[in-house]
Amino acid sequence: MTTPKLVLSTPADILSAVPYLVGFHPADSLVVTGSAGPEVRLTTRWDLPADPGDLDRLIPLLRREAVTSAFLVGYGPGALVTPVVDEVTRRLRAGDIRVTESLRAEGGRYWSYSCTGATCCPAEGTPYDTGGSRVAATAVMHGLVALPDRGSLRRSVGPSGGTRMRQATFRVTAALRTCLAAMETGMETAADPAGPDEQAARFVGDALERLRAAIGLYASGGRLGDEEAARLGLDLAVIRVRDEAWALIDDRDAHLALWRDLTRRLEPGHAAPAASLLAAAAWQRGECALAGMALERALDADPGYSMALLLRQALTHMMSPAMLRDRMPTPEELDDEMGAPRAVWLAPLRALLTPAQTGSLS
Predict the structure, then answer these.
(1) Is 304 helix (H, G, I), strand (E, B) or coil?
(2) Are 275 and 263 contacting, i.e. CB atoms less than 8 angstroms apart?
(3) Chain-centre distance of CA 290, in angstroms?
(4) Is the pLDDT score of 189 beyond 50?
(5) Which residues does 14 contact at the CB level (< 8 Å), separation at least 6?
(6) Which of 194, 209, 286, 342 has its CA 20 to 30 A from that of 98?
(7) Residue 112 backbone dihedrals phi, psi, to 5 degrees
């Protein structure tokens, strides 16, 4: 996705843009948006009241992103917002980062901490309306979304598969169990002379083709059918397939659309890889709130899922997505690092298909 150019020339423009930068309309929050020249580098948000220790990571984060200026918006009553705005402003100035504007918003009115004129900044606040603004219209036209609140964002990644998806998952699971049971015999037959490793290589190759086709489908505005979605969700249990999906993530909307769709539709116990990929795609686009919600889904499905734990650490420590993205191998490098597929690669999928894991589908 190419981030649209949002011209923010007034406090009302800033207040109109913030919900689209964080993905929802904040409440009891502090939002800091950092820029380098005209380019927005990042937007980060804290619940209020903020833990002072959390603020310690702000200046190192802004410096990593080469931020030279920032604006602050606090949402909530003055007693909640003003102390933390004052503290963040002090830290920014001490770090040689210019504060272009600092605002408090509550009840459809805003107050500017940067303005001292009673004419332009009355004591009762200035009314504003984000809905009909030019900035909001530009954001919507470019596909940005501002959900009503944080709960709406959480619901946007919640389970929504339904009975048809559950039945499709049952059929796909049964077929895969049969397929893997045949492979486990390790027997070469006249019908299929390949041994277990060659069969695994064919399985992984087919899964990678399904993955790439799915990305292309969502790039064209399409959507996987229920059985196709269930099968791709299970394919992702194979680490080589999951890592290919991770390596392919770029700024296209297709990745966010595909992994959000699968996160919602897959059976909860199958959702950890897709939800982690959604988190990676969202984080890369600067949608940290969505990334955090996706990681909650992933860790609900599998509390020990390594990719989700890694991304949660990165978000907690406010790492730049570029720090991890620049270290991601290409698909070709994955081939070099992992070598030829082996039957053992399918062990996580076999574990996922055991009756203990899928008993409710059987």
Answers:
(1) coil
(2) yes
(3) 5
(4) no
(5) 8, 71, 73, 101, 103
(6) 286
(7) -100, 125
Look at the block and give the residue holding tokens 């940005």.
144
What is the rounded distance in angstroms from the CA atom of residue 167 to the CA atom of residue 172?
9
Highest mean pLDDT of the ranges 35-44, 146-155, 227-236, 322-331 = 227-236
The helix (run of H) or strand (run of E) holding residue 165 is helix 162-184
For residue 145, pLDDT beyond 90: no
CB 321 within 8 A of CB 284: yes
Single out the residue of 295, 236, 243 nearest to residue 270, CA to CA. Answer: 236
Q: How much is the average pLDDT of 193-219?
A: 91
**What is the C-alpha to C-alpha distance for residues 166 and 358, in angstroms, rounded to an integer?**
11
Nearest partner of 8 among 118, 123, 139, judged by Cα: 139
Instruction: Find out whether 230 and 169 touch, Cβ atoms under 8 Å.
Output: yes
Burial class of 290 by CB neighbour count within 10 A (0 to 12, 13 to 18, 19+): buried
Residue 36: enclosing H or E segment and its boundaries? Answer: strand 29-36
User: How far is the C-alpha of 322 from the C-alpha of 327, rounded, in Å?
Assistant: 8
Pairing of strands 98-106, 69-75: parallel
Burial of residue 71 (number of CB atoms within 10 Å: 0-12, 13-18, 19+):
buried
Task: Give the span between the Cα atoms of 175 and 193, in whole angstroms.
Answer: 21
Indicate the pLDDT class of residue 358, thresholds 50, 70 and 90: low
Per-residue pLDDT at 359: 46
Pull the structure tokens for residue 49. Answer: 């009241």
Q: What is the DSSP letter of 147?
A: B
Secondary structure (DSSP) of 219-262: HTT----HHHHHHHHHHTTSHHHHHHHHHH--S-HHHHHHHHHH
**pLDDT (tens digit, 9 = 90+) per residue, 79-95?**
999 999 999 999 999 99
Task: Give the residue-averaged pLDDT of 287-301.
Answer: 90
Distance of CA 143 to the CA centre of its chain: 16
**Residue among 133, 111, 151 nearest 23 (CA):** 151
Query: Counting every residue, how long is the chain?
Result: 362
pLDDT at 191 exceeding the cut of 70: no
